[in-house]
Amino acid sequence: GGGGGGGGGGGGGFRALALGVSFLKCLLIPAYYSTDFEVHRNWLAITHNLPLSQWYFEATSEWTLDYPPFFAWFEYALSHIAKYFDPQMLVVENLNYASRATIFFQRLSVILTDTLFIYAVHECCRCIKEKRAAKDILEKPAFILAVLLLWNFGLLIVDRILSNQEFQFCFVFFQKRYLEGALLFAVLLHFKHIYIYVAPAYGIYLLRSYCFTANNADGSVKWRSFSFLHVTLLGLIVCLVSALSLGPFLVLGQLPQVISRLFPFKRGLCHAYWAPNFWALYNAMDKALTILGLKCNFLDGTKIPKASMTGGLVQEFQHTVLPSVTPLATLICTFIAILPSVFCLWFKPQGPRGFVQCLVLCALSSFMFGWHVHEKAILLAILPLSLLSIQRAKDAGIYLILATTGHFSLFPLLFTPPELPIKILLMLLFTVYSFSSLKSLFRREKLLLNWLETIYLIQLVPLEIFCEIIFPLTPWKQHFPFVPLLLTSVYCALGITYAWLKLYVSVLTERTSVRQKAE
């Protein structure tokens, strides 16, 4: 794309946004932290004290090392800085150790490594083409994109308040730098294997745009243009990165152990709090059919596991009426859901925009049907969709539904009273900005949302009031403590499913222009 807006609508504007969000993260240092804090403290201790051969076997804490080796080495490097803050945090047996120095170090390491994400956002904003010159910096698409990415509500509360030391999603906007992009993605995959969700998009895009060097006039692939050299180069990059990451464990004969840690299928279909996806709706339907079956005497109450009716959202969820779901079933569903988007990327290539569309659909499809999906994974779809939202009104409408619903679904992660005003205020600020900025950007177009979509999003307000204020005062809290989580999960699942279907319909029915075919 052309240089549009010098990175976020002027260098000064971007710098102000980046410094502002970093300052806000500093203010949130004393805020609530979750089990993720102890997870990373334990990993720092494991990598610092134990030899490589024991990293993926150590099980003193229940939070065993279950990230790929590059991330383990990253923790190892951090541990050598951590010892100057508080050496006690590096003792493996010090479970749930949380001194002020430890908390400060964990938060600070996140804020500093976030510079990588800030750089990635800056590069993205530089690639934005402006259809018409905006006089006001606040109306420049590049500036709006910078706000939507840097000040993303989900990233603020998940990575900051929950103290995740995780590399942010580094948008590799290839811009014909295919090998560089492939290298970065391969490295990213060995830092955090959740990105395997979007690997089909990267793989097909590289195969279509780099391994085949020419198209026919109608946009179809010219099979004779296949480049064996390009495939070899890509293969070498992937093999080299994989060898660096997994090689030592292959030599030690521990590869099966590493794989079993990275893909723990022994865990249940859903987290303790259901991610708002298809399986949340499936579980809710099972609960509803069970209650109906008991009322109508179709089911024998003595044979139903007690936890499935009263204990709420336990990890090992036993389906009573509907068939229980296996990891293989989720894998097949995910594969089928991803397939159309990958076909579109191959048969209807639209350059970088088509790639980002496929990326979002792969992330969303995996979120919808994956095994043991974490609710935070919705950010994998929301962030790249931000790129599309500033280009077309149709995508902006889908973004507003997905972002609002997806961010709201993260609310149960922050359940302590002091965080209630913080999360509501941050969510309101981000949502109001998203709506107003995208509305002004597309003011010449039709409405971004129809009346039904608007009503659905407005209903999130009474839902939050009921879950946070009304429900805790009722006697139901003792008997059905899981109800607020269930309502949030199921209601948000409806919105996310709708956004996924709407985006799919938009992509599948889209006509490709002659110029896009040539690209």
Please describe what this structure looks like:
With 519 residues, the chain is mainly α. Among the domains are: 12-127, no CATH class; 278-509, no CATH class. Helix content is 60%, strand content 0%. It has 22 helices and no strands. The protein has helices spanning 11-27, 35-49, 69-82, 100-113, 115-126, 141-150, 153-161, 178-189, 199-211, 228-251, 255-262, 278-295, 327-347, 351-369, 379-389, 393-408, 419-441, 451-458, 460-470, 476-479, 483-508, 514-518. The protein is globular, with a radius of gyration of 24 Å. The two termini are 12 Å apart. Mean pLDDT is 83; it is low at 1-6, 160-174, 308-315 and 514-519.
* H/E element sequence: HHHHHHHHHHHHHHHHHHHHHH
Rg value: 24 Å
Could you describe the largest sheet, including whether it forms a barrel?
Answer: none
| Cα separation of the termini | 12 Å
Number of strands: 0
Quaternary organisation of the protein chains: single chain
GO molecular function: dolichyl pyrophosphate Glc1Man9GlcNAc2 alpha-1,3-glucosyltransferase activity
Subcellular location: Endoplasmic reticulum membrane
Transmembrane segments: 12-33, 142-162, 182-207, 228-252, 328-347, 354-371, 422-442, 454-474, 480-501
Keywords: Endoplasmic reticulum, Glycosyltransferase, Membrane, Transferase, Transmembrane, Transmembrane helix
